[in-house]
Structures are given as structure tokens and as C-alpha cells.
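re the bet — no i am not wrong, look at it urself. input seq straight from the record:
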Amino acid sequence: MDVPGHPDVPQHRADRSAVPADVRTAPARQLPRADPRLRDHGGAVLRLDDEGLLRHHPQGDRRGGPGGRPDADRHVLAADRAAGQAGPGGDRVLQLPHRLGRGGVRDAVHAVRPLHARRRHPHLRAGPAPRLGVDLRHGDHHHHPGGHRLHAGAAQPGLRADGRRHQVLTAAPSGRPDTPAGPRPSASASVVPPAPLRESMTQHVTDTVPTEAAAAASGRREWWRDAVIYQVYPRSFADGNGDGMGDLPGIRARLPYLRKLGVDAVWLSPFYASPQADAGYDVTDYRAVDPMFGTLTDADDLVREAHALGLRVIVDLVPNHCSDQHEWFKQALREGPGSPLRERFHFRPGKGANGELPPNDWESIFGGPAWTRVADGEWYLHLFAPEQPDFNWDHPAVHDEFRSILRFWLDLGIDGFRIDVAHGLVKAEGLPDIGHDEQVKLLGTQAVPYFDQDGVHEIYRSWRRILDEYTGERIAVAEAWTPTVERSALYLRPDELHQAFNFSYLTTGWNAADLREVIDRSLQAMNAVHAPATWVLSNHDVVRHSTRLAEGDPARGLRRARAATLLMLALPGSAYLYQGEELGLPE
């Protein structure tokens, strides 16, 4: 029942219909107190940090590695055996949509903010809040057109005597951890069932998936139009070798959890070779896996096993910039001013009597000038860190290189790409001044000459043609911060990308009228280009919504986060979950 003036009731709700009973939350179950250091916070646990990674030692024992504690498993959220028990204070928990049959979560995820990651959108920062998590149950899910219905969960098996879960990998008949029984499909084909994720688990995964044209002819809806996609930050999701750092084998070991959770696809943040100046978004080799995360064979194994489980895999692509340790950039520095190799980037002479001033007034997203001067006196552009020089997308070699990169990963069996800074590849001709201080405040609200230029659309048309050459409905998702949802829709015209994150929705406050307005405008804009809306509340670049909505009260933030996630999953279109969001984790 809504209480007028209650802080958890969005303003101006008098004209809104009540939430249907089938999407209301279910009773919580109280957390067992396995560790006296975990203080009671209304059914939640404290201190969820990077040292609490899900860690799997090759011999099955959980052991501390560099940066980890031997007893870190005490901080893993554990499920109570009793079902349907109300938590302290009558708290309730969110039932995440479950697309793969009955049963609870096999293992609890311990998802955290990655170490050393820089915030790309400072205007979405929030003040510090206690690290508070909550135990959420996951129940049965049945596909419902236009939304994601939520159902009650089941009791959780597999707990130890102290209420915690065993963290050992079970060997499948193949002898490899968590490998499904039966033959392994080829990773070169995108292997995902067209219906079982939404209806039942009785059908078998096939070796091929119809193309979009065949899907349209058969009347089957393309999978990405209403998919739930789960973002994984590799370094902080699950540790497969006991070294204290998340990796690809760790992710592979947790794929059964994601399958049970009911998501349709997994989006992996960058795992490419990188000096890690910006948590992997500074790439030295787009065709190699950084050793901290594993090998190319590990990536191939992950894709194969995901497909065998009926999950698709989307990877991050970083086309706006590379690392200053990328071979192209090192060659450009060696060649000096005037070299054709420098034309792959934005090198310019400086202003001032001796070229001591930057070429224009652009500011880095991370603060300070967007230009760095090199020893020979020229400056190079970097919209992010100095270690991330921007590519010049007016140069044909850049186009050729990224078309080759796309094909490399598509041939491996990847199902799609999340395009980092999709709105930033093309800069306005002449790189004009902006004439405004604190430019970061303009981002996503006003036009700037280095973002959302019309020239980016021809790039994505060429990429769409490549994606359409492959079977299995391979997709591309734009991270495009635009001033309006109408501008975002331009990335989703039928010959361009498939999805674009709805950041207008993400940045809307806890106000019913405002939410209604942005939802209505979003659906109208996307319908105009025959594209699905793509809803998102949290990711690695912004403060988690349970903290953003808290206004200094973690319990309030948790309640609002549950409601916000329920609303998002009930909306028409696709939805993205950031790792740990199903647990209600705060910042």
C-alpha cells in the first residue's frame, strides 16, 4: 500500500495503476550468520570488496592469492535453506526473471567494483555509502511478450553445515570443470536455442541459428529484441586459478550460475592485452587476451561452453582509442612529425609562440586538457587518459583494421559487440574550440564537436553489413551518450546497430512523472526506427543505482533499487544487468 509522502513512493502516482500481483516481491529469507564480522543490516551483509572474489583453486580448495585473504570465502553471500521466510523487519527480496526452468541460484555471485577503474561519467558520481549487499532469490520464469514476468523462487540446495556454499568445481564427464555432457559445438557458429531460454529446457541446442531474414520469414522474434543481458567485469567476477584476480576460466566456471539466473547473454568487459591504465579500455592488441585473464584458448572454451548452455557472448570493442603502447602509436612516435603513420591518430602542432599551448580547448573526460605534448613538440588527442590516444577515423587504415578485428572475433563465435564510446569515433572537421569550461557537464546533454557526429553512422552501416554476413543474429550495441533519445535512435536505423543503451532512462531520478515521460519518449523514438528500447540502470561507468537512489539511506536505496529493477524488467525491449545487480549490491 502506498503511503502519501513516503520516501519510497515516486511523486505524483495518483494516476498510475497498481503494480500487478505477479511482479511483486516475495518474502525474504534471513541470512545465516556464518561469520561474526558480518553485522546484521536487515538481512544484508557488510564489506563486499575485491578480496571476496569467487575463487576456484585447481585442486578445489579455496585459497588466498595476492591481494586476497584465505578466509575471504566468509564474505560470500549464502542462502538460507528455508524458503519463504520473512527477513528482519519484514524485508522482501527481488525475484529476478528466470528463463531456464525452476531452481534457485546454484552459487552466490560476489560482484564488486573493479580495482583502479576510472569513472567515465563524473556527473553521475555519488557520495560514499556503506558496502551493503542483500541475498536475493531467483525463481521460475515464463516468457511474457512485452515484459519479463517474475515468479517465486525455490529453496537453495548445496549449503554447508555453517550455511555457506561449497566452492569447488564439479567435474563433468569430459573431465573439465562445469563442462556440459555431450559433444562440444563448434565455436565458429553462434550456438543458441531459439526458444528454450524463453519457454522450456526440453529442446536441444542446435549447431546453427536461422539468420534474421529466416527468422522474420518464420515469424520468430529476433532474440536481441527482448533479451536480458548480464555484464561481467572479468577482473572482479570470478577467479579460476587462485591468484586473486578474476579471469576467463573463472567466468567459464560460473556460466551455469548465469544460465540458472535466466539471462540470455553475457557481455564481457575488455579482456584484451593491455597495460591496464584504464581497466583494459587501453588496448595494445585487439586479437590477444591479456595474460592476467587467460589465453585465447580460454576465450574459445568460454564461448563454446556458453553456447552449449544456451547463452550468447558479447564482447567489448574499443574503437575510439587504443593504448599508447599499441604498436601503431609507438611507430607514430618513432617516425616523428609529418609521418603518414601519425595520420592514424590526431597529431597537431600546438598554439602559442612556441607551440606550448594545446591545439584547442577540448578537455579530457578524466579532467585536464585532452591533449598531451610529445618530445618533438607535437600534441596528440586523447579524450580519456593520456595513455589512450584517439584513432583518426578519417584514415582508411583504421577502418580496415577494425573490420578485420570484427571478423576475427566473429570467426571465433562471438555473438556481438558492445561498442565503447560509439558516439566518439568521428570528430567535427577542423577540431573547433568549444568555448566552455567544465565540458564534462555538457556530455549527454548538449552537442559537442567530438561526440555524436553524423559521420559515425556510415561506420556502423559498414559494420552491420559484416555482422549480417554471419549466421546466428550477431549484434552490435552502442554505448552512445546523446543529448536526446531521438539522437540515440539514429544509431538503430535498420541498416545500423541493433541496440543502444538508454542513458536518458539511467539518469532519470526517482520521480514517477519523469520516469513515465522518458519511457514514453524512448518507446516512441525506438518504434520510429523499428528498434527495441534497451534499458539499463547500472554499469561500470556509473554509480550503482541502489546507491544513486539511496539519498544517504542504504536501506531506502535497496528498496528503490528493487522497484527500479522490477520496472525495468517489465518494460518492452531488452534489459542489461550489471554484475551483482541481482543481489542489490550498492557502490
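see?? The chain has two domains: 26-120+131-178+187-320+393-427+436-583, 327-381. told u. also The two ends are 29 Å apart (CA to CA). so pay up
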